[in-house]
Specification:
- This protein is α/β, with parallel strands linked by helices and 449 residues long.
- It folds into 3 domains: 27-243, Rossmann fold; 247-388, 3-Layer(aba) Sandwich (Rossmann fold), CATH 3.40.50; 407-447.
- The protein has helices at residues 27-57, 68-76, 80-100, 136-149, 179-188, 198-207, 224-235, 260-271, 289-302, 306-316, 325-335, 347-353, 368-372, 409-425, 429-436, 444-447, and strands at residues 5-8, 105-109, 112-120, 123-127, 153-158, 192-195, 217-219, 240-241, 249-254, 278-283, 318-321, 339-343, 359-362, 399-406.
- It has a 6-stranded parallel sheet with strand order 1-11-10-9-12-13, with helices on both faces. It has a 5-stranded parallel sheet with strand order 6-5-4-7-8, with helices on both faces.
- Strand 4, helix 4 (136-149) and strand 5 (153-158) form a beta-alpha-beta unit.
- Helix 1 (27-57) crosses helix 6 (198-207), helix 1 packs across helix 7 (224-235) and helix 3 packs parallel to helix 4 (136-149).
- It is globular, with a radius of gyration of 26 Å.
- The model has no long low-confidence stretch (mean pLDDT 95).
- Catalyzes the sequential NAD-dependent oxidations of L-histidinol to L-histidinaldehyde and then to L-histidine.
- Its cofactor is Zn(2+).
- It comes from Egicoccus halophilus.
- GO terms for molecular function: histidinol dehydrogenase activity; NAD binding; zinc ion binding.
- It is an enzyme of class 1 (oxidoreductase).
């Protein structure tokens, strides 16, 4: 049974964007639901958060803020092997994001002093999903760059979908978030953890409630409702956001050197996230399709989440056949994948040619998994083609660049004529007046004061 549809682009160099796979969603219905959620939280604060948590997560919660003792107990009971893995991931992600921090600069042009200061936002909200999977890695990816940027306070929201200390499949939810998420938050010293999820969490971080202080930035991945809530609240000027981080997607550029087992495993590895995952193979080799399908036939049934993988591959799994690597690069750019893998000869050179991707994973020894779990670059990345104009979460996401300039009297006098000419050309003479008045002697009444 073929799991991937075939899109034959050979001989066709037109823009392929409208033919490349994307998940189908009812945006109108989702926006209507998000509008209702945002209005409820704006108008009724914590009471709305409790009601929405009961409705969507099936949990009746009283105190929304997770107590410190629960955080500390989660860390104390964390499996030592898992803690070591988290600590290694934290160290590597911190190293990478320290190097991503933009530098202040100052210089002089014709003696005029100018430059840029980078100021951290005062309070950042981070969202950590808790639906089909558990994401302590997202705690690291959102909190660490905020800390590196120097943010004063970090608020973390995550739904109460934990099942105690015995694992994610151990039974009914107990009203607290997943204990590994809580342990990771404790390990990083997050200022406040709130057990609320979905669009209502984003609304709380934007508007502010008794339990959730209003934040300047809200970042982190989530479902369609979370992403739409972030976009709408950002459009209102209430929060800054990191971009559109919707359902996961992976594109693999492959030639005759690609190992079909690895290609199949990497498609499956991302498809287990969600039924809406896009898995795209862009290849110059039609002969690669059958071996990849055969490998999928072996891999998918043995996967823990085989059902959601089957759904994702059936609906969005696609092989794009291309004439050559030049066309493969063009198709990869048009898709602008969240995750882009390169399995070709001279993979590094091919990777450099693809201008747009959230993160590029170069060569057969660099699966997306290493990026997911802490190689260094962030795993909160743009999806749905938005990598064409924005990048992933990084230290600079939490920094506001503040431009500054300082003129002396002599320098302003030298520039005054140019300012005047431009001001009058735009019919804004008061702009010119603001310069000219500085060189006029004070009036008698002004001198008397």
């Amino acid at each position: 049974m073929a799991r991937l549809s075939v899109l034959d682009l050979r001989g066709d160099r037109s823009d392929p964007r409208d033919r490349l796979p994307r998940p189908r969603t009812d945006l109108a219905a989702a926006r209507e639901a998000v509008d209702a959620t945002l209005g409820a939280v704006r108008d009724r604060g914590d009471a709305a958060l409790r009601e929405l948590t009961a409705r969507f997560d099936g949990q009746d919660v009283d105190d929304l803020v997770v107590p410190r003792e629960v955080l500390h107990e989660s860390l104390e009971r964390l499996d030592p092997r898992l803690r070591a893995a988290l600590e290694r991931s934290i160290a590597q992600v911190r190293w990478y994001h320290e190097r991503c921090r933009p530098l202040d600069w100052e210089d002089h042009l014709d003696g005029v002093r100018m430059g840029v200061w980078h100021r951290p936002v005062s309070r950042a909200g981070v969202y950590v999903p808790g639906g089909k999977a558990v994401y302590p890695s997202t705690v690291i990816m959102t909190v660490v760059p905020a800390q590196v940027a120097g943010v004063d306070e970090i608020v973390l929201c995550t739904p109460p979908t934990g099942t105690g200390f015995t694992g994610i499949t151990s039974g009914e939810h107990d009203g607290w978030p997943n204990r590994t998420i809580l342990a990771t938050a404790a390990l990083l010293g997050v200022d406040r953890v709130v057990r609320v999820g979905g669009a209502q969490a984003v609304a709380a971080m934007a508007y502010g409630t008794d339990a959730v202080p209003a934040c300047d930035m809200v970042v982190g991945p989530g479902n369609l409702y979370v992403s739409l809530a972030k976009q709408q609240l950002a459009a209102q000027g209430l929060i800054g956001i990191d971009g559109y981080a919707g359902p996961t997607e992976v594109a693999i550029v492959a030639d005759h050197t690609a190992d079909p087992r690895i290609v199949a495993a990497d498609l499956v590895g991302q498809a287990e996230h969600d039924e809406l995952v896009v898995a795209l193979l862009i290849t110059t080799e039609a002969a690669l399709v059958d071996p990849v399908e055969a490998a999928l036939e072996r891999e998918v049934p043995r996967a823990r989440h085989a059902e959601r993988i089957e759904t994702a591959l059936r609906n969005q799994g696609t092989v794009a056949l291309v004439d050559d690597l030049d066309q493969a690069v063009a198709v990869a750019e048009a898709f602008a994948a969240e995750h882009l893998e390169i399995h070709t000869e001279d993979a590094g050179k091919v990777a450099e040619r693809v201008r747009y991707a959230g993160t590029t994973f170069i060569g057969p020894w660099t699966p997306v998994s290493v990026g997911d779990y802490g190689a260094g670059p962030n795993h909160t990345l743009p999806t749905s083609g938005t990598a064409r104009f924005t990048g992933g979460l990084t230290t600079s996401s939490f920094l506001v660049p503040v431009n500054y300039v300082e003129y002396t009297e002599e320098q302003l006098r030298d520039f005054a004529d140019a300012v005047g000419a431009l001001a009058h050309s735009e019919d804004l003479p008061a702009h010119a007046r603001a310069v000219d008045v500085r060189f006029e002697p004070p009036l008698a009444e002004d001198r008397s004061r």
